[in-house]
Design goal:
Elements: H1 3-10, E1 14-18, H2 21-25, E2 38-45, H3 49-60, E3 65-68, E4 84-85, H4 93-125, E5 133-140, H5 148-159, E6 166-168, E7 181-189, H6 192-205, E8 209-211, E9 216-220, E10 225-229, E11 233-242, E12 258-271, E13 279-282, E14 289-293, E15 304-315, H7 322-336, E16 343-354, E17 360-363, E18 371-375, H8 381-396, H9 404-407, H10 417-430, E19 450-456, E20 459-465, E21 471-475, E22 486-488, E23 493-495, E24 502-504, E25 509-511
Parallel strand pairs: 1-16, 2-3, 2-11, 3-8, 5-13, 11-18
Antiparallel strand pairs: 4-7, 5-7, 6-7, 9-10, 10-11, 12-15, 12-16, 13-14, 14-15, 17-18, 19-20, 20-21, 22-23, 23-24, 24-25
Helix pairs in contact: 1-7, 3-6, 3-8, 4-5, 4-8
C-alpha cells in the first residue's frame, strides 16, 4: 500500500455509500410480477438500457411488447454505469480499423454518434428531464506513453468520418497539466435512471407491458417462441430479445468471444464550476474515465458538482485486491483534481469485453432465427444499448440496416484471433481451481460478514458467515459451465472467473451467463 493511499484513508474524507450515484438519486417505477400466461409480438428479457430501448422503439412501431426482468427496472449493470455517451471508441479507432477495416470503423463511428442523437431526440420528444447535455470529450495520455498514440488515433478518427476531432496542446484544466489530448466534439452525458424512467412510462403509455421480479428460466425459439418464467407461466411471442448484459440462453457461442471485467467508480464532491464540464479518458490500460454530475441544490447548501471517476478494471473473479481498488482510484483522482472533497459514493460494475471491440447485436448464433441478443457492451453500454434498439427493431421488422453485418453475433473476427486464443487460454486455466485446496482449512476461520471457499473431499463449498455468525453454505460450482467461484470481499459476492457469472453472498445469481443460483449442498 502506498503512502498516499494510507493518508487518503487516514483523513476523514469519506462518507462513501456502497451504492451507485444513480440508484441513490432516482427511484424507478414499480412494476408487477407476471402472474399469468401472455402473448406479444415481441418478448424482451432484460430491462436495462438495451431492453427498454428495444421495447420503446418497437412500441413506437405499433408492436405489442412484454418486458421481463428478474429484478427491478434498470436494476442491473445499467444502474452502475458512469453514463458516458461517446462516439470515441474505448478500444481506439486504429484498432477498430485494423480488425474491421476502414468501412467497419466508419460504421462504428456513425452508429455511436447516431445513438447519442437518438437519446437526445427521445428525451426531447418524451420531455424526459434526464440532465442530457452535449459536451466535448478529451483523450489524454497515460503515464510514460508516447504522443504518437494520439497521432495514430487522430488519423484513424478522421478516416472514420469524425472530421471534428482535433489535437490540442493540453486538456482544458488550469489545475493539472495532463499534456496533449484529442478533443472529440458533440459527445454527451445524462442521468441514466431518469432517462429510463421516462422510457418505461412511454412504453406503458403505448401499450407495452413491464414485469419485474419475473425470472426467465428457459427461452426457446420457434413459431411461436416461448419464454418460461417463475416455474409457472409462459410468454409466447413472434420474436424474443435477450438483453441481459450477457446472454442467459447461450452456453458457449458468445461466451468464447467476450470476457467479463469488473470496473470500479467513485463520486466525490468538488466546488461547482471548478472542473470544466466534459468527458475525460486517459490511454492507460486499464484506462481512467471522468465526468461530472450536478446534483440538485438543497436549501442552505453550497452548490457542488460530483466528480465521477472510474477505472481499475480486472477480469471478474481474477483479483485478490478488490478492497484496495477504490482507494487507488481516489489517489489517482486527488493527484489530478486537488479540489476534491468528500467521496460520497463508491461502487463497481461489470462490463463485457468482446475480442474485437464491438458489441454483439443481432440473431443469436446456433438458435432459431427469431431469437435475438445484445451483449458485449465494451464499456460503452449506453450507446451500444441504444444501437441495439435501432438495429434490432429493423431486424425484427424485416428492414435492412447498414450496421447489421458489423454487429452480427455470428461474425468471425479473424484479425482478433490472438485475443481469442489469449482469452480461451485464460479461461481454461481457471478450471485448475478444482485441483487446489480451500481458501481456509476450516469454516471456523471465516470472520463475520465474510466468505471463503472450503474443500470437503472432492467438493468445493462457498461458505459465508453473516453478521450474526451464522454460516451459510452452497456449492461453489458455477451452474453455467462448472467453474469454481471466488469470494469478492469488496462487493460481498461470489464471482465466476471463467465467464463472469456473479452471485450474492447467499448464492443468488444476479449476473449471467448463469441463470440459476449456486446449488444447495444436498443437490450436488
Amino acid at each position: 500500500m502506498t503512502e498516499s493511499h494510507t493518508e487518503a484513508h487516514a483523513e476523514p474524507r469519506r462518507a462513501a455509500k456502497k451504492n451507485s450515484l444513480w440508484a441513490a438519486t432516482k427511484r424507478m417505477p414499480r412494476c408487477p410480477k407476471l402472474d399469468e400466461d401472455r402473448h406479444a409480438d415481441v418478448c424482451v428479457v432484460g430491462a436495462g438500457i438495451a431492453g427498454l430501448t428495444v421495447a420503446y422503439m418497437l412500441t413506437q412501431e405499433g408492436k405489442s411488447v412484454v418486458v421481463l426482468d428478474d429484478g427491478r427496472l434498470a436494476g442491473g449493470m445499467t444502474e452502475v454505469t458512469t453514463a458516458h455517451l461517446a462516439s470515441a471508441i474505448d478500444d481506439r479507432f486504429f484498432e477498430i480499423e485494423r480488425i474491421h477495416g476502414e468501412e467497419g470503423a466508419r460504421r462504428a463511428a456513425e452508429s455511436h454518434a447516431a445513438a447519442i442523437d437518438r437519446i437526445e431526440a427521445i428525451a426531447a420528444r418524451e420531455r424526459i428531464a434526464c440532465d442530457f447535455a452535449r459536451l466535448d470529450g478529451h483523450l489524454f495520455l497515460g503515464r510514460d506513453q508516447s504522443e504518437e498514440l494520439l497521432d495514430r488515433e487522430l488519423e484513424a478518427a478522421h478516416m472514420a468520418g469524425l472530421d471534428g476531432v482535433e489535437k490540442l496542446p493540453r486538456v482544458p484544466w488550469d489545475f493539472f497539466d495532463a499534456g496533449p489530448c484529442l478533443r472529440f466534439p458533440r459527445q454527451g452525458q445524462f442521468h441514466p435512471l431518469k432517462y429510463l424512467a421516462g422510457l418505461a412510462k412511454a412504453i406503458e403509455r403505448d401499450g407495452g407491458k413491464l414485469f419485474t421480479n419475473t425470472h426467465a428460466e428457459r427461452i426457446d425459439g420457434g413459431r411461436p417462441a416461448r419464454v418460461r418464467v417463475n416455474e409457472k407461466h409462459t410468454v409466447t411471442a413472434d420474436a424474443v430479445v435477450v438483453a441481459t448484459n450477457t446472454p442467459i440462453n447461450d452456453r458457449y457461442a458468445i461466451h468464447t468471444k467476450q470476457a467479463a471485467y469488473l470496473t470500479y467508480a467513485i463520486a466525490a464532491r468538488v466546488p461547482r464550476g471548478s472542473v470544466p464540464k466534459g468527458l475525460y479518458w486517459d490511454t492507460e490500460d486499464p484506462y481512467h474515465y471522468v465526468r461530472l454530475q450536478s446534483p440538485r441544490k438543497k436549501p442552505g447548501e453550497e452548490p457542488y458538482d460530483l466528480l465521477i471517476v472510474g477505472g481499475e478494471d480486472h477480469k471478474t473473479g481474477q483479483a485478490d485486491d478488490q478492497t484496495e481498488r477504490h482507494g487507488r482510484l481516489e489517489d489517482w483522482a486527488r493527484a489530478r483534481f486537488p479540489m476534491i472533497g468528500l467521496v460520497e459514493f463508491v461502487w463497481a460494475g461489470q462490463c463485457l469485453e468482446p475480442i474485437d471491440g464491438l458489441a454483439f447485436i443481432g440473431r443469436n448464433p446456433l438458435d432459431d432465427e427469431n431469437v435475438f441478443i445484445v451483449t458485449g457492451d465494451s464499456g460503452m453500454g449506453m450507446t451500444h444499448g441504444t444501437i441495439a434498439g435501432i438495429l434490432l427493431t429493423d431486424l425484427i421488422l424485416g428492414r435492412e440496416n447498414p450496421w447489421a453485418t458489423l454487429y452480427d453475433p455470428s461474425r468471425k473476427p479473424l484479425r482478433a484471433l490472438g485475443e481469442y486464443v489469449k482469452d480461451a487460454t485464460n479461461m481454461a486455466a481457471q478450471y485448475t481451481d478444482w485441483l487446489m485446496g480451500g481458501d481456509v482449512g476450516s469454516a471456523d476461520e471465516i470472520p463475520h460478514d465474510s466468505g471463503a471457499i472450503l474443500r470437503r473431499g472432492l467438493s468445493k463449498v462457498a461458505a459465508y458467515r453473516d453478521e450474526n455468525g451464522t454460516l451459510h453454505e452452497r456449492s461453489a460450482v458455477c451452474p453455467h459451465l462448472g467453474c469454481v467461484v471466488r469470494w469478492n470481499p469488496a462487493e460481498k459476492s461470489w464471482d465466476c472467473p471463467c465467464h463472469g457469472s456473479r452471485f450474492d453472498k447467499l448464492g443468488k445469481v444476479f449476473n449471467g451467463p448463469a441463470n440459476r443460483d449456486l446449488a444447495p449442498l444436498e443437490d450436488e
